[in-house]
Amino acid sequence: MERQAQISASAGAVAPAATPPGQAALLLPVPANLIEFMQLYGSDDACRKVLIEARWPSGFSCPRCRHTRGYELREYPVIECARCGHQASATAGTLLHGTKLELHKLFLLLYLLVAEKDGANCKQLKRQVGVNYKTARLWKLKLSDMLHCREKDSLIGKVEIDETIVGGGDDQSVGRRLSSRQRYVLVMVEDRGNECGRLRLEAMDDAKSQTLATVVQSNVQKGATVHTDGLRGYGAIEEHEIAHEPEVIGDPKQASKKLPWVHRVASLLKRVILGTLQGSISMGWLPWLLAEFEFRFNRRRANRRPLLFARLMEFGLKTTARTRRYFLKKGKMFREMGLS
Q: What burial class does residue 200 get, using C-beta atoms within 10 Å of its C-beta: 0-12 exposed, 13-18 middle, 19+ buried?
């Protein structure tokens, strides 16, 4: 009781919860520009306050006993339950769980990843945030992994589909056979007439009939109509209750006119790889890169780019972070497979 009284006297009580946590809409201040971002998130205390309000929008609720009153401790960045003494952290169980990086630097790093239209590479993050290269790469991978594992709605209506090849070739690659530094990417875009809708990207080891059918089935809703080129491998799509409208394209120069949206997206993707990433890409990590590109593209019409930061943090608060060891094991596996 004496310890609790001391904590209560040295820290303010968090307001009781009116409704169960997670039921109210997430409230996160959205900066208009980088200057406003620094004003809102320029210190660890400011970032922690935002996280607390976002985790418990209707007031604190103890994760262990559900008591609605707790006290913020000055000595540690936690809230202690007034009933059971359980200490809850605003970052526990989220993308930020266990981070050793200062919160204001971490917020800035995540902001820079989505604020620019084409993203940012690890060297840019290292220079602008003041962290080492390994830290920048780790958090870029954590972000991409969160987006890669997130559940997504299937594409509907009319959908354009085509495959493209990313990565550098070598003298061993012939025809449609890929080198160890190349992979297929299936591009799927909703065709809404005068504009394109949502995008889905999937990395593939081959463009065989069964592979194409499986990928399309997992990304396109039943009853949709798929528009492709004349590749025979797409014929198996019809077995999954998806209408198929193939069109044989004799002259390669006409491909961009017959399937304009997928070719535009493929061109943008390769521009990001050559521009932002300067052509440096690991085939093993390609699915993570595609998830990040897909996230930006599907929110390209946001009135303000910083809105993506708020959406990103919303996803992060619902995601359990991967550890550094997980990514090290993944990287080792990709190197052994020749995909690094």
A: buried
* Predicted local distance difference test score (pLDDT) of residue 182: 84
d(CA 130, CA 140): 15
Residue 59 near residue 14, CB atoms below 8 Å: yes
How high is the pLDDT of residue 1?
34
- Specify which residues 202 forms β-bridges with: 186
What pLDDT, on the 0 to 100 scale, is given for residue 220?
95
Mind listing the domains of the chain with CATH numbers? 97-150+285-340 (no CATH), 158-281 (3.30.420.10)
Beta strands 158-167 and 225-229: pairing type?
parallel
Question: CA-to-CA distance for 61 and 52, rounded, in angstroms?
Answer: 11
Strand pairing report for 70-72 and 13-14: antiparallel
Interstrand relation of 225-229 and 243-247 (parallel, antiparallel or unpaired): parallel
How much is the pLDDT for 176?
60
Other Cβ atoms less than 10 A from the Cβ of 321: the count is: 19
* Separation of alpha carbons 78 and 5, rounded Å: 16
- Say if residues 4 and 85 touch (Cβ distance below 8 Å): yes
Cα 77 to Cα 46, 88, 179, 205: the distances in Å are 12, 9, 50, 46
Q: What is the pLDDT of residue 332?
A: 77
Collapsing DSSP states into helix, strand and coil, what is residue 312? helix
